[in-house]
Write a structure and sequence with these properties.
442 residues, alpha/beta, Rossmann fold, 3 domains, six-stranded parallel β-sheet, five-stranded antiparallel β-sheet, 13 helices, disordered C terminus
Amino acid sequence: MLDLMPSLSGWRPAVSGERCAVATIVAASGSVPRPPGTSMLVSETGRILGSLSGGCVEGAVVESALEVMADGGSRLEHFGYSREDAFAVGLTCGGELEVHIQPLGSAPGGLRLENLQALAGHEPAAALALIRRVDARGGGAVVIPDPATYRVESSAELAALLGLAHVGARAAGRLMLAAAAQLEPLLRGGRTGLVRLAPPEGCLSATVAAATPGEVSGTGSGTPVPQSEGTSPEPATLLVESRLPAARMLVFGANDFGAALLPAAKLLGYRVTLCDARPAFSGQDRFAAADDVATDWPDRYLAAEASAGRVDSRTVVCVLTHDPKFDIPLLRTALGLDVAFVGAMGSRRSHRQRVDALLEAGVTPAQLARLHSPIGLDLGAVTPAEVAVSITAELIAARSGAAACPPLKDGTGPIHHRPAEPRFPSEPRLGAEPARQETAWT
């Protein structure tokens, strides 16, 4: 749902007050285009905001959403691939999706469009979380403006969402402890996930409460429903979407490569700072894409940011200065911090000299093993724009733990090269310099 918030205020059905339904991926397996938490809004006139699969199942989801608006209930739809029926609605990529579809409206326990519009008022990069009830008997949601500090166990809003008003204090306390153990890692990690909470032994399930659970405002209660003898209560199912403030990327080096990396990094969602000790370089208009520009000695700036608590385990450090008097003290500082990624630009020759200098400066071999140098994946990049793609590709590979091609730091030989013949003769590479030769080392 959070992915739709930036576009909601300009969506005509939301502005005009049309009836709408929200469809959300709550489970996915195999090869699927979008992850759990991805949502799509459908209006009563068939207008759509968002996408779940890039076109494979949208038609069927719209049809179900219109039915949901007509009958006022919610439903869970399953989509997969059928070899037996080539014309069946499904995912041709072979994956499987479970989609929860729920109307927006004024019914008790339901999601309300005006509440989502209030949710959309938060800054796009600000921390925010949404916990929604998506089981058959539940509905509603709780908005959490500061997921990093949210205490589940003491949340009256979440207890209302689970319908615990009619459950004994000890049993409710045990359920809230179980909820905290599963929900808080997702909230604090900025992740999306589905949490199922089994009811405490000996009490009615929160999920079999006749649901008037909390709305987005966090108010509401549940009324227990008697269980048939021999039946097991259904677990409460919560969809958690958590978004932390944008991770920082610190780019050191006001040069062509830094200018190309800034917009590429912002496409990946980073808050980007450019730092250079030389005012004549850092003050150029071409670095306006940066969220912040700092004119300071690089290692001093990084140490000050770390001391102020503005560097954390998600921070990325990219050293593009290509100058030992900046690089060595900066890398020594960076490799001593708990950050996600430290990379440095340079040839293999300069990397070897850099390693020797860092060892002499007291950097340990274990710290050096964290250094991505030369920075980037071996894509054959030459121009600053191509190098920016190479660097961001390695960042994605490092975040996911998988890479389609090896990092430059794991290879040998020249890092700049060209194919003998242009691969796309009709589209020559404009502005490319001749390949720079350098001595390979092993």
